[in-house]
Amino acid sequence: MRVLPLYVVIGGWLSMPALAADAESWMGRLAMAEQKQSYEGTFVYERNGSFSSHAVWQQVEAGRVQERLLQLDGAPAEVVLVDGQMQCATDELAAQVREAQAWHGQRLDPKALSEWYEFRQIGDSRVAGRPAVALAVVPRDQHRYGFELHLDRDTALPLKSLMLNEKGQLLERFQFTHFSTDIDKQQLTASSGCKTVSISKREANLSSGWRSDWLPAGFKLLDANQRPSPASSETVSWLSYGDGLAKFSVFMEPLRGALVEDARSQMGPTVAVSKRISTADGDVMVTVVGEIPLGTAERVALSMRTGAEQAQR
Amino acid sequence: MSREALHESLSAVMDNEADELELRRMLAGDNPELRATWSRYQLARAAMHKELIEPRLDIAAAVSAALADEAAPVKTQRNGWKSLGRLAVAASVTVAVLAGVRLYNQNEVAGPQLAQQAPQPSIAVPQTSQGPTVLAGYSEQAEAPAQAAADSAPVERWHEERLPSYVRQHAQQAAFSNGSESALPYARAASMEER
């Protein structure tokens, strides 16, 4: 059922000029540009139930990347990052981030990604008044979503990114409406609402009391942690997985006999699936949250096992 | 009322130009054909605005049920009581509509192509047995009246108390914790904060 519509989507892309080699070189340029190019612009973000507009300023000087992001409508969510490390943020936006990995983990790596995604050049386009090249990022299996990327012909930065499910339905839109490589340096300074955050840095933690019996190909454990439950005195185990592009989190909270049913919901690209599983220590609610298809999330949730060793793939 | 007049009223309701008495006239009667037309209009509007809507959800049926319990305003009533009655009708309609909004936002993602589907038979009452959950992005729809109308059982509340926090933790960790490219994951995280 799921595979058939996927072929329809891929078929549509195949019928356009497919220049895989060019697409890979564009992906390579994109990976470089994100750490080397100064720019500013405004963009919109849209998903099911949400539409917002934002401004971004990024300055790269002597290898130091300074970036400020500011939501332009509603509450002014703001964050300033230096070399990817958060310097300040508005209250809610960073409330859940208490520590960061000391290493630059998930850089875009087109070579590694090409094992799980196929890159195709599908044509020319124009975004934010600038000529762009449109690429299809097609998943090689049903366990991840595809993208349509529109890269600026001049800088190779993404001016537009559409996430699509296996039926070709749009899950989210990220699109610049204004983009410039001339940057107003004064705008790099945070506003007073941006509160300094000190986030402890640590190495990625790959040990937890949990492991997954099954993972979609290409997904690796990125980090693990334990936190107090948002609603009880229990401790919640958190595991984070990624394939280099898509990510999902797994939360495990002991139920201690509570009568809770399974649940599932989807907000644009983000799915949340809760499944009750039995362990020697009583029932546990496993919740998988991430930008992966529902069926994949369900299978991951049902595959979580207690055990000292984390299965590495 | 003639068929044409009813459909004209329906258009007025769709354009938010009808007063509550016109809305009552539209929805109070047991008129499945009219309700089907209402559903089609809703779908057409949703498709035009590229809104996502659940076609199987019949808000009109819930509104009709609310109206059935209300006594129709009588012309001989004194003005004060009349307007009070109108207020009560308006309030119950609001609750029914809010509950509907809350329900269809909980449904799985559905593209504009939903508009191509034929409207299904109505679901008159919000179903709380599916284990629905309210996520952070939708907290504004889960205001007090909707909460009361949907009457969330403790079973669902377990998820409602946790999922918003889990979703935010996932989004913020993905955006800020490992020095990766940040504009798109930042926007995703910010979209979970909308109030």
Low-confidence stretches of chain A: 309-313
- The structure class of chain B reads mainly alpha
Low-confidence stretches of chain B: 100-151
Radius of gyration of chain A: 20 Å
Q: Overall pLDDT of chain B, averaged?
A: 59
* Helix proportion of chain B: 55-70%
CATH class of the largest domain in chain A: Mainly Beta
* Total count of strands of chain B: 0
Q: Give the DSSP E fraction of chain B (strand runs of 2 or more residues).
A: under 5%
CATH-defined architecture of the largest domain in chain A: Clam
> Count the strands of chain A?
21
Give helix and strand order of chain A, one letter per element, not per position: HHEEEEEEHEEEEEEEEEEEEEEHE
Order of strands in the sheet with the most strands of chain A? 7-8-9-10-11-1-2-3-4-5-12
Shape of chain A: globular
| Oligomer state of the chains in this structure | heterodimer
Note the beta-strand portion of chain A: over 45%
Structural domains of chain A: how many: 2
Subcellular location (chain B): Cell membrane
Domain Anti sigma-E protein RseA N-terminal (chain B): 7-76
Main location (chain B): membrane
Biased composition (Low complexity) (chain B): 139-153
